[in-house]
Amino acid sequence: xxxxxxxxxxxxxxxxxxLSDGGLDWLTAHLSGLTxxxxxxxxxxxxxxTELLLLVPPPVVILALALLAWRxxxxxxxxxxxxxxxxxxxxxxxxxxxxxxVLVTLSTLAALAIGVPIGIGCALSxxxxxxxxxxxxxxxxxxxxxxxxxxxxxxxxxxVSAVFATVVxxxxxxxxxxxxxxxxxxxxxxxxxxxxxxxPMQKLLKVQLPLALPTIMAGVNQTIMLSLSMVVIxxxxxxxxxxxxxxxxxxxxxxxxxxxxxVAIVIVAVVLDRxxxxxxxxxxxx
Length: 286
Known about the structure:
By secondary structure, this protein is mostly helical. The chain is 82% helix and 0% strand.
Protein backbone atom coordinates (compact mmCIF):
# COMPACT_ATOMS: atom_id res chain seq x y z
CA UNK A 1 0.00 0.00 0.00
CA UNK A 2 3.01 2.28 -0.14
CA UNK A 3 1.93 3.60 -3.55
CA UNK A 4 -1.00 5.33 -1.84
CA UNK A 5 1.42 7.53 0.12
CA UNK A 6 2.07 10.75 -1.88
CA UNK A 7 5.53 10.97 -0.29
CA UNK A 8 6.58 7.91 -2.24
CA UNK A 9 5.60 9.35 -5.62
CA UNK A 10 8.40 10.24 -8.02
CA UNK A 11 6.34 12.50 -10.31
CA UNK A 12 7.87 15.99 -10.17
CA UNK A 13 5.65 18.85 -9.06
CA UNK A 14 4.43 21.17 -11.80
CA UNK A 15 6.10 24.53 -11.04
CA UNK A 16 2.95 26.63 -11.22
CA UNK A 17 4.06 28.91 -8.41
CA UNK A 18 7.48 29.48 -9.99
CA LEU A 19 5.97 30.18 -13.39
CA SER A 20 3.49 32.62 -11.85
CA ASP A 21 6.25 34.46 -10.00
CA GLY A 22 8.34 34.63 -13.15
CA GLY A 23 5.47 35.97 -15.23
CA LEU A 24 4.59 38.57 -12.61
CA ASP A 25 8.23 39.66 -12.32
CA TRP A 26 8.50 40.00 -16.11
CA LEU A 27 5.30 42.05 -16.33
CA THR A 28 6.35 44.24 -13.42
CA ALA A 29 9.76 44.91 -14.97
CA HIS A 30 8.47 45.70 -18.45
CA LEU A 31 5.34 47.62 -17.50
CA SER A 32 6.71 49.58 -14.55
CA GLY A 33 6.72 52.88 -16.45
CA LEU A 34 3.13 52.47 -17.54
CA THR A 35 1.90 51.34 -14.13
CA UNK A 36 3.65 54.22 -12.35
CA UNK A 37 2.07 56.77 -14.69
CA UNK A 38 -1.33 55.10 -14.34
CA UNK A 39 -0.92 54.97 -10.58
CA UNK A 40 -0.21 58.71 -10.36
CA UNK A 41 -3.19 59.46 -12.61
CA UNK A 42 -5.66 57.30 -10.68
CA UNK A 43 -4.32 58.54 -7.33
CA UNK A 44 -4.95 62.09 -8.51
CA UNK A 45 -8.52 61.23 -9.51
CA UNK A 46 -9.20 59.58 -6.16
CA UNK A 47 -7.73 62.48 -4.21
CA UNK A 48 -9.48 65.16 -6.27
CA UNK A 49 -12.85 63.38 -6.19
CA THR A 50 -12.72 62.84 -2.45
CA GLU A 51 -11.61 66.40 -1.73
CA LEU A 52 -14.37 67.76 -3.97
CA LEU A 53 -17.07 65.79 -2.18
CA LEU A 54 -15.71 66.77 1.22
CA LEU A 55 -15.64 70.47 0.28
CA VAL A 56 -19.40 70.41 -0.32
CA PRO A 57 -21.45 70.58 2.89
CA PRO A 58 -23.04 67.21 3.70
CA PRO A 59 -26.64 68.55 3.55
CA VAL A 60 -26.03 69.74 -0.02
CA VAL A 61 -24.63 66.34 -1.03
CA ILE A 62 -27.56 64.55 0.59
CA LEU A 63 -30.07 66.83 -1.14
CA ALA A 64 -28.36 66.33 -4.51
CA LEU A 65 -28.34 62.55 -3.99
CA ALA A 66 -32.01 62.57 -3.03
CA LEU A 67 -32.94 64.61 -6.11
CA LEU A 68 -30.92 62.27 -8.33
CA ALA A 69 -32.58 59.24 -6.75
CA TRP A 70 -36.00 60.88 -7.23
CA ARG A 71 -35.23 61.47 -10.91
CA UNK A 72 -33.90 57.97 -11.54
CA UNK A 73 -35.87 55.80 -9.14
CA UNK A 74 -38.83 57.69 -7.71
CA UNK A 75 -39.77 59.39 -4.44
CA UNK A 76 -39.59 56.32 -2.18
CA UNK A 77 -35.97 55.61 -3.10
CA UNK A 78 -35.19 59.33 -2.74
CA UNK A 79 -36.49 59.33 0.85
CA UNK A 80 -34.58 56.11 1.57
CA UNK A 81 -31.37 57.62 0.19
CA UNK A 82 -31.73 60.85 2.16
CA UNK A 83 -32.52 59.05 5.41
CA UNK A 84 -29.66 56.60 4.96
CA UNK A 85 -27.02 59.24 4.28
CA UNK A 86 -28.32 61.47 7.06
CA UNK A 87 -27.79 58.51 9.39
CA UNK A 88 -24.24 58.04 8.07
CA UNK A 89 -23.55 61.72 8.73
CA UNK A 90 -24.88 61.29 12.26
CA UNK A 91 -22.55 58.29 12.80
CA UNK A 92 -19.54 60.56 12.03
CA UNK A 93 -18.68 58.36 9.04
CA UNK A 94 -19.22 60.98 6.36
CA UNK A 95 -15.59 61.30 5.24
CA UNK A 96 -15.13 57.51 5.01
CA UNK A 97 -18.41 57.18 3.12
CA UNK A 98 -17.42 59.79 0.54
CA UNK A 99 -14.06 58.08 0.00
CA UNK A 100 -15.82 54.74 -0.47
CA UNK A 101 -18.22 56.25 -3.00
CA VAL A 102 -15.31 57.70 -4.98
CA LEU A 103 -13.51 54.33 -5.04
CA VAL A 104 -16.67 52.46 -6.05
CA THR A 105 -17.52 55.03 -8.74
CA LEU A 106 -14.06 54.94 -10.33
CA SER A 107 -13.89 51.15 -10.18
CA THR A 108 -17.38 50.72 -11.64
CA LEU A 109 -16.80 53.18 -14.48
CA ALA A 110 -13.51 51.48 -15.39
CA ALA A 111 -15.11 48.02 -15.23
CA LEU A 112 -17.98 49.15 -17.47
CA ALA A 113 -15.66 50.91 -19.93
CA ILE A 114 -13.71 47.67 -20.36
CA GLY A 115 -16.45 45.09 -19.81
CA VAL A 116 -19.28 46.40 -22.01
CA PRO A 117 -17.20 46.45 -25.24
CA ILE A 118 -15.87 42.97 -24.45
CA GLY A 119 -19.43 41.76 -23.85
CA ILE A 120 -20.56 43.23 -27.17
CA GLY A 121 -17.65 41.52 -28.91
CA CYS A 122 -18.48 38.20 -27.23
CA ALA A 123 -22.10 38.47 -28.40
CA LEU A 124 -21.05 39.14 -31.99
CA SER A 125 -18.21 36.59 -32.18
CA UNK A 126 -18.54 33.00 -31.01
CA UNK A 127 -14.78 32.59 -31.29
CA UNK A 128 -14.18 35.49 -28.91
CA UNK A 129 -16.78 34.14 -26.49
CA UNK A 130 -15.09 30.74 -26.58
CA UNK A 131 -11.84 32.46 -25.59
CA UNK A 132 -13.23 34.84 -22.97
CA UNK A 133 -15.79 32.50 -21.37
CA UNK A 134 -13.32 30.17 -19.60
CA UNK A 135 -11.43 33.20 -18.32
CA UNK A 136 -14.62 34.61 -16.84
CA UNK A 137 -15.34 31.26 -15.17
CA UNK A 138 -11.91 31.34 -13.55
CA UNK A 139 -12.27 34.98 -12.51
CA UNK A 140 -15.63 34.36 -10.85
CA UNK A 141 -14.44 31.30 -8.92
CA UNK A 142 -11.11 32.78 -7.82
CA UNK A 143 -11.13 33.86 -4.15
CA UNK A 144 -11.38 37.63 -3.95
CA UNK A 145 -8.27 37.94 -1.78
CA UNK A 146 -6.15 36.54 -4.62
CA UNK A 147 -6.80 39.66 -6.70
CA UNK A 148 -4.90 41.70 -4.13
CA UNK A 149 -1.63 39.80 -4.77
CA UNK A 150 -0.77 41.05 -8.29
CA UNK A 151 -2.05 44.55 -7.55
CA UNK A 152 0.69 45.27 -5.03
CA UNK A 153 3.74 44.70 -7.32
CA UNK A 154 2.15 46.85 -10.05
CA UNK A 155 0.78 49.74 -8.01
CA UNK A 156 2.05 49.33 -4.45
CA UNK A 157 -0.01 49.64 -1.30
CA UNK A 158 -2.90 52.09 -1.31
CA UNK A 159 -6.13 53.05 -3.02
CA VAL A 160 -4.80 52.60 -6.58
CA SER A 161 -4.15 48.90 -6.00
CA ALA A 162 -7.63 48.66 -4.52
CA VAL A 163 -9.16 50.16 -7.66
CA PHE A 164 -7.13 47.82 -9.90
CA ALA A 165 -8.17 44.71 -7.95
CA THR A 166 -11.77 45.89 -7.78
CA VAL A 167 -12.00 46.47 -11.54
CA VAL A 168 -10.75 42.97 -12.32
CA UNK A 169 -12.97 41.39 -9.67
CA UNK A 170 -16.17 43.20 -10.66
CA UNK A 171 -15.86 42.98 -14.46
CA UNK A 172 -17.18 39.44 -15.25
CA UNK A 173 -20.90 40.09 -14.55
CA UNK A 174 -21.17 43.04 -16.93
CA UNK A 175 -19.35 41.09 -19.66
CA UNK A 176 -21.65 38.09 -19.27
CA UNK A 177 -24.88 40.05 -19.01
CA UNK A 178 -24.02 42.38 -21.90
CA UNK A 179 -23.39 39.36 -24.12
CA UNK A 180 -26.52 37.62 -22.81
CA UNK A 181 -28.69 40.68 -23.40
CA UNK A 182 -27.58 41.06 -27.02
CA UNK A 183 -27.90 37.33 -27.71
CA UNK A 184 -31.42 37.37 -26.22
CA UNK A 185 -32.72 39.92 -28.73
CA UNK A 186 -35.43 38.14 -30.78
CA UNK A 187 -34.08 36.86 -34.07
CA UNK A 188 -37.04 38.19 -36.06
CA UNK A 189 -36.17 41.76 -35.01
CA UNK A 190 -32.56 41.44 -36.12
CA UNK A 191 -33.69 39.84 -39.37
CA UNK A 192 -36.11 42.70 -39.93
CA UNK A 193 -33.28 45.16 -39.37
CA UNK A 194 -31.17 43.30 -41.91
CA UNK A 195 -34.09 43.33 -44.37
CA UNK A 196 -34.27 47.13 -44.11
CA UNK A 197 -30.61 47.33 -45.09
CA UNK A 198 -29.12 48.49 -41.78
CA UNK A 199 -25.38 48.19 -41.31
CA PRO A 200 -24.03 46.01 -38.47
CA MET A 201 -23.24 49.15 -36.43
CA GLN A 202 -26.73 50.59 -36.98
CA LYS A 203 -28.30 47.29 -36.01
CA LEU A 204 -26.21 47.16 -32.86
CA LEU A 205 -26.90 50.76 -31.77
CA LYS A 206 -30.56 51.03 -32.76
CA VAL A 207 -31.89 47.50 -32.21
CA GLN A 208 -29.70 45.19 -30.17
CA LEU A 209 -28.35 47.53 -27.47
CA PRO A 210 -31.70 49.25 -26.71
CA LEU A 211 -33.44 45.89 -26.32
CA ALA A 212 -30.55 44.47 -24.30
CA LEU A 213 -30.38 47.51 -21.98
CA PRO A 214 -32.40 45.98 -19.09
CA THR A 215 -30.07 42.99 -18.97
CA ILE A 216 -27.02 45.24 -19.26
CA MET A 217 -28.34 47.34 -16.36
CA ALA A 218 -28.59 44.16 -14.28
CA GLY A 219 -24.91 43.66 -15.04
CA VAL A 220 -24.21 47.24 -13.96
CA ASN A 221 -26.01 46.55 -10.69
CA GLN A 222 -23.93 43.43 -10.04
CA THR A 223 -20.73 45.28 -10.92
CA ILE A 224 -21.51 48.04 -8.40
CA MET A 225 -22.25 45.51 -5.66
CA LEU A 226 -19.05 43.56 -6.33
CA SER A 227 -17.07 46.81 -6.44
CA LEU A 228 -18.41 47.78 -3.05
CA SER A 229 -17.58 44.40 -1.53
CA MET A 230 -14.07 44.38 -3.00
CA VAL A 231 -13.29 47.92 -1.88
CA VAL A 232 -13.94 46.75 1.67
CA ILE A 233 -11.65 43.73 1.26
CA UNK A 234 -8.99 45.92 -0.35
CA UNK A 235 -8.66 47.85 2.90
CA UNK A 236 -6.12 45.14 3.77
CA UNK A 237 -3.71 46.70 1.23
CA UNK A 238 -4.26 50.30 2.23
CA UNK A 239 -7.58 51.33 0.67
CA UNK A 240 -9.43 53.94 2.66
CA UNK A 241 -13.10 54.56 3.25
CA UNK A 242 -15.49 52.40 5.23
CA UNK A 243 -13.39 49.32 4.59
CA UNK A 244 -10.55 50.90 6.54
CA UNK A 245 -12.92 51.44 9.45
CA UNK A 246 -13.86 47.74 9.41
CA UNK A 247 -10.23 46.62 9.16
CA UNK A 248 -9.18 48.99 11.96
CA UNK A 249 -11.92 47.64 14.23
CA UNK A 250 -10.74 44.08 13.54
CA UNK A 251 -7.18 44.97 14.45
CA UNK A 252 -8.31 46.66 17.66
CA UNK A 253 -11.01 44.08 18.51
CA UNK A 254 -13.49 46.95 18.61
CA UNK A 255 -16.78 45.20 17.89
CA UNK A 256 -18.91 48.34 18.20
CA UNK A 257 -16.96 50.35 15.63
CA UNK A 258 -16.85 47.36 13.30
CA UNK A 259 -20.62 46.87 13.49
CA UNK A 260 -21.17 50.59 12.93
CA UNK A 261 -18.97 50.57 9.80
CA UNK A 262 -20.68 47.39 8.60
CA VAL A 263 -24.10 49.02 8.90
CA ALA A 264 -22.78 52.01 6.95
CA ILE A 265 -21.62 49.72 4.14
CA VAL A 266 -25.03 48.05 4.06
CA ILE A 267 -26.75 51.45 3.78
CA VAL A 268 -24.55 52.50 0.85
CA ALA A 269 -25.09 49.13 -0.83
CA VAL A 270 -28.88 49.26 -0.41
CA VAL A 271 -29.13 52.80 -1.78
CA LEU A 272 -26.98 52.01 -4.84
CA ASP A 273 -28.79 48.72 -5.40
CA ARG A 274 -32.27 50.25 -5.29
CA UNK A 275 -31.30 53.08 -7.65
CA UNK A 276 -29.75 50.78 -10.25
CA UNK A 277 -32.60 48.27 -10.00
CA UNK A 278 -35.12 51.05 -10.62
CA UNK A 279 -33.07 52.21 -13.60
CA UNK A 280 -33.10 48.65 -14.97
CA UNK A 281 -36.90 48.44 -14.60
CA UNK A 282 -37.33 51.75 -16.42
CA UNK A 283 -35.10 50.52 -19.25
CA UNK A 284 -37.43 47.62 -20.02
CA UNK A 285 -39.50 48.14 -23.14
CA UNK A 286 -43.20 48.68 -22.51
